Amino acid sequence: NVSIIWIYAVLTGLSASVLRSAVMFTFVAMGSSLKRITNIYNVLASSAFFLLLINPYFLMEVGFQLSYLAVLGIVLLQPRIYPLFYTRYLLLDKIWMITAVSIAAQAATFPLGLLYYYQFPVYFLVSNLFVIPASTLVLYLGLALFALFWMPRVSNVIGLLLDKTIWFMDWVVLSIDSLPFALLQGISISVPESWFIYLIIAGIVVFFYYNRNSFFIASLAFAALLLGWNTIEKFLHMQQKRLIIYSVPNTTAMDFISGCEHLFVADSSLLNDYDRMLFHIKHNWWDSGLRSATAGVSDDFQMPFLKRKNQYIQFLDKRMVLLDKEFEASESGTKLKVDFIILSKNVRVKMEKLAEAYDFGKIIFDSSNSGKRIQYWKKDCERLGIGYWDVNEQGAFVEEL
User: Fold this and answer.
1) Which residue in 15, 161, 217, 290 has the most C-beta neighbors within 10 A?
2) If we measure between CA atoms, which residue out of 272, 281, 274, 273 comes closest to residue 253?
3) What is the pTM of this model?
């Protein structure tokens, strides 16, 4: 019943993948009621067109892209993969059928996984053996619970089965995720590289469908273009010189980048928090081709391109001062020329005193400062005509050198 499908879709939040399923089912039901033969590719295309007509921004949603590509991969590749292996044992046949679906869906979606999430699930074939049947059961149990909610004894049993099935599915995913080398992380590709990968896949698929060597040669050509693009990116990474002061709430976090070498300086609370590092920092490292090198915010350090002594930092040809303790002006009376002054940890300082002690280009307020303190500093900067950058409000400060 179409109405039940749509009520279920509303209850689950109308995500892009759920909308895709609901619209496709609706179109198939309409075709059946009109006694028309439905073609899965036409249903896919028309449902996507219908959803984009309602909201064109669906096209930019990761869930929308992954959902349609997964279905396209399954209907296009699974019929070619499944016949490659035959067994007369029913259980082995069902396992192979799920495996063929997993391979088809993964082949169609893994470039987007690399583009958006920088990772590849190594054990996807194992996890899908459990997740695909369990998720199918969750769908049917959810529909049954919705249809039979008015029968307390029956609905309680269905609800218990639904709860246990979801628990089992989560347990399988978390258990497999905890295995060694479960994820290949740090794989960074650009949008053009993702298109090259899809063109390679498309060429191989068409080659197997029509057995024309020209398509296989085209795939090799796209592979060569992908390799060339990647080589250019590596060369550009070797030329980069960049100062970054990140916007990480309540934290000091700075990157000094020279080629593929860098030093990341941050509070220990951030350095020891894997999830925050992954969310705020590591994606930028992977995009920039950087090797991980870190230091505490209070540490002195010396590298070929970077040196710090107390509050003074020399990075290539840029000088800066990091003030995170109470400021004491020099008694010499001469101004020290620096490019940047970085204020951190709600340091007690007045702009007038800084202007007397330093000849500088810009003041940067990092994320470890409170909003109230930054607003106080801003008023003084505007009154004195001092340039500033607030990473909390304006985002990360990035200086290309």
Assistant:
1) 290
2) 281
3) 0.84
